[in-house]
């Protein structure tokens, strides 16, 4: 079991570096059964994805269990910058890309009341990749790389306790390993001495770091028909460090690279859910998820090379103003059991954009999504197979030029849609 779990966990770590956007910096959930029910799973949490949704759900496990979940996010983003004439200055569309994520989890009952477990998954990610040819009208004809990736692998040991026949509680410690990469034009700065202005050229950075947090959950099931769940995930600040490069600077007898540091806080998340079984074959669920995105007001970066510190401050790249706002998601799900081995699922949720129009940027997308999902589950003895498909329709957002111009802001019209197929496999021993 340990070898199988480690191999599955390694697969999760290897696929993380390409994650697509949803829910601010976070993904919208882990687990195919939960996804098929629109992520309204906090009041249920009775499969291997409990480590993410509500650790208290694991207290009901009576056998050892291992599960693996894989997802492929397929986004299509658009950006259009109009002009005073018919043809737009920029009319860009991302190519079809596949961004992978997943979860591996193992649980073991120690007694009839205590269960321990371990989950390794990708709860957070954001990214974008554009064709630099589409942006030459605003970069003086030069083709630059435009891409961003930020994501987290969370290692979460779990303990769940069944207090009585009605109430269970659980908790995890979340060791969060963050990875971040960025490619973009650095812009032009006025330095006061020749060459002036100075074109900084292509900018690239790669960073990683660690943070720690925790998840606490409670599950109350007063009857076989009714369940209530509550989950609180604490903030976690990841301290990133790495290296940035601007290859054109050595031409001007300036250092071509610099070490840098940056802190990003993944904010407080509170979710409540209810499940109801009106008839034996039908399970209904509803969740409310609140995320304190207002903690991401701005992100600052420290450059350790003195020459870089001055240039980056002049360019404004040392400060990313977000001014994000708290967001509340509403989620609804249903599962209908056809027979003892087959279940059909459907769900819907609304995911509001945390970012205001004034701070929109092609490398840090922020959209409001209306998401629809379907799924199917198949039970074969102790083996459970689940499949899900989600479609996220992002609302079109148009940002107009305004004063003062915030660092990194890019006026224009933004669009986004995402298709998300998933598969889960779990086994009870």
Please give a structural write-up.
The structure is a single chain. The chain is mainly beta. The protein has a single domain, classed as Outer membrane protein transport protein (OMPP1/FadL/TodX) (Porin, Beta Barrel). Helix content is 8%, strand content 55%. It contains 4 helices and 22 strands. It has helices at 2-15, 32-36, 50-53, 306-315; strands at residues 65-81, 90-93, 99-109, 114-130, 146-162, 167-185, 188-189, 198-199, 202-223, 226-233, 236-245, 257-266, 269-279, 282-291, 298-303, 319-321, 327-337, 342-351, 369-380, 383-394, 397-399, 412-428. It has a 14-stranded antiparallel beta barrel. The chain has a two-stranded antiparallel sheet with strand order 7-8. A hairpin with a 4-residue loop joins strand 5 (146-162) and strand 6 (167-185). The protein is elongated, with a radius of gyration of 23 Å.
Summarize the model shown:
The protein is mainly beta. The chain is built from 4 helices and 22 strands.
Question: Are there runs of 5+ residues with pLDDT below 50, and where?
Answer: 1-21
Strand order of the largest sheet: 1-3-4-5-6-9-10-13-14-17-18-19-20-22
Helix content: under 10%
Number of strands: 22
The tally of structural domains comes to 1
* CATH class category label: Mainly Beta
Keywords:
429 residues; two-stranded antiparallel sheet; 4 helices; elongated; Porin; 22 strands
Describe the SSE topology.
Elements: H1 2-15, H2 32-36, H3 50-53, E1 65-81, E2 90-93, E3 99-109, E4 114-130, E5 146-162, E6 167-185, E7 188-189, E8 198-199, E9 202-223, E10 226-233, E11 236-245, E12 257-266, E13 269-279, E14 282-291, E15 298-303, H4 306-315, E16 319-321, E17 327-337, E18 342-351, E19 369-380, E20 383-394, E21 397-399, E22 412-428
Antiparallel strand pairs: 1-2, 1-3, 1-22, 3-4, 4-5, 5-6, 6-9, 7-8, 9-10, 9-11, 10-13, 11-12, 12-15, 13-14, 14-17, 15-16, 17-18, 18-19, 19-20, 20-22, 21-22
């Amino acid at each position: 079991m340990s070898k199988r779990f480690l191999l599955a966990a390694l697969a999760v770590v290897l696929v993380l570096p390409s994650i697509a956007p949803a829910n601010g910096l976070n993904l919208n959930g882990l687990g195919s059964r939960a996804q098929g029910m629109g992520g309204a799973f906090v009041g249920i949490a009775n499969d291997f994805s409990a480590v993410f949704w509500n650790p208290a759900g694991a207290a009901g496990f009576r056998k050892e269990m291992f599960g693996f979940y894989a997802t492929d996010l397929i986004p299509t983003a658009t950006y259009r910058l109009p002009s005073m004439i018919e043809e737009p200055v920029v009319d860009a569309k991302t190519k079809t890309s596949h961004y992978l994520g997943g979860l591996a989890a193992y649980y073991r009952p120690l007694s009839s009341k205590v269960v321990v477990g371990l989950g390794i998954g990708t709860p957070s990610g954001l990214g974008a990749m554009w064709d630099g040819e589409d942006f030459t009208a605003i970069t003086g004809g030069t083709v630059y790389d435009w891409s961003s990736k930020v994501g987290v692998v969370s290692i979460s040991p779990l303990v769940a306790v069944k207090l009585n026949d009605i109430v269970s509680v659980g908790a995890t410690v979340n060791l969060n390993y963050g990875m971040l990469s960025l490619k973009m034009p650095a812009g032009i700065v006025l330095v006061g001495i020749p060459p002036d202005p100075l074109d900084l050229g292509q900018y690239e950075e790669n960073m990683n770091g660690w943070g720690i947090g925790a998840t606490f959950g409670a599950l109350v099931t007063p009857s076989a028909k009714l369940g209530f769940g509550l989950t609180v995930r604490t903030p976690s600040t990841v301290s990133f460090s790495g290296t940035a490069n601007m290859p054109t600077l050595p031409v001007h007898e300036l250092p071509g690279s610099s070490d840098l540091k940056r802190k990003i806080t993944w904010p407080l998340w509170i979710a409540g859910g209810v499940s109801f079984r009106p008839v034996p074959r039908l399970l209904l669920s509803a969740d409310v998820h609140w995320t304190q995105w207002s903690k991401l007001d701005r992100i600052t970066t420290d450059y350790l090379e003195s020459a870089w510190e001055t240039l980056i401050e002049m360019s404004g790249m040392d400060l990313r103003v977000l001014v994000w706002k708290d967001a509340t998601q509403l989620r609804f799900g249903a599962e209908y059991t056809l027979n003892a081995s087959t279940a059909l699922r459907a769900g819907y949720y609304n995911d509001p954009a945390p970012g205001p129009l004034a701070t929109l940027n092609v490398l840090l997308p922020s959209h409001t999504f209306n998401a629809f999902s379907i799924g199917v589950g198949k039970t074969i003895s102790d083996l459970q197979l689940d499949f899900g498909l989600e479609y996220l329709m992002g609302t079109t957002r148009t940002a107009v030029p305004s004063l003062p111009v915030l660092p990194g802001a890019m006026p224009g019209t933004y669009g986004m849609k995402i298709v998300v197929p998933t598969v889960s496999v779990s086994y009870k021993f």
